[in-house]
Structures are given as C-alpha cells and as structure tokens.
Amino acid sequence: MPNTIKTRSGRVIHLPTEEEDTRINAGIAADEDTFELSDAQFKQVRRGRPPAEQTKERITIRLSPEVVEQFRASGRGWQTRMDAALKDWLKSHRPR
Q1: pTM exceeds cut of 0.85
Q2: Which of the chain's ends, N or C, has fewer CB atoms near its CB within 10 Å?
Q3: How far is Cα 47 from Cα 24, in angstroms, rounded to an integer?
C-alpha cells in the first residue's frame, strides 16, 4: 500500500513508491532542460507576485453602496479600475 498524507482539509495525497520515485528521478536526470538550483539560487526564489515598483497606500474609505456595487460587479481588478477612475477624475478636477 502506498504512503499517503492527509491534509488539514481532508484531501488524501498518495506519495510515490520508492520504485516510482527512482523512475521519476531518472527521468528528471535524463532531461537536458532540467537542472538543480544551488542553495544560493534557491534562496533567491520568490513566491507570489513580484514586488511593485510603486506601492499603493492602504486606507479606509466610505463610498456609496451603488458605487461599490457597480465596481465589484465588473469583476476581478475592480479596485484597480476604481483607482484608475479617480486618477482620471484628477486630470480635470482639483480636490478641495
């Protein structure tokens, strides 16, 4: 019976047997496009989104429900679109 790991969510992950693991590693070693990272290279690997050149400021703002509803209804990235709309407004207006 193969080794298994059960995650917190209850998902069962079946681990390869030693024989399967040996075949997998042999396939990796035979692939000329595959290489192992050095410890120094591995430490430089970043997970997730790359850091932004210009970060945005996190604030709390109160907006009309219909404004938020319309932007949210436009799907993923709605906050970015709201930011763009405000930047566009600033081109022809000055806040008081």
Answers
A1: no
A2: C
A3: 25
User: Rounded to 5, what percent of the chain is helix, strand, coil?
Assistant: 45, 5, 50
| Residue found by looking up tokens 């993923």 in the block | 76
Q: What is the 8-class DSSP label of residue 8?
A: T
> Which residue is associated with the tokens 């709390």?
60
Which position has the token pair 């790991």?
Answer: 5
Task: Kindly tell me if the per-residue pLDDT of 2 is higher than 80.
Answer: no
Model confidence band, residue 35 (pLDDT cutoffs 50, 70, 90): confident
Burial grade of 71 (CB within 10 A; 0-12, 13-18, 19 or more): middle
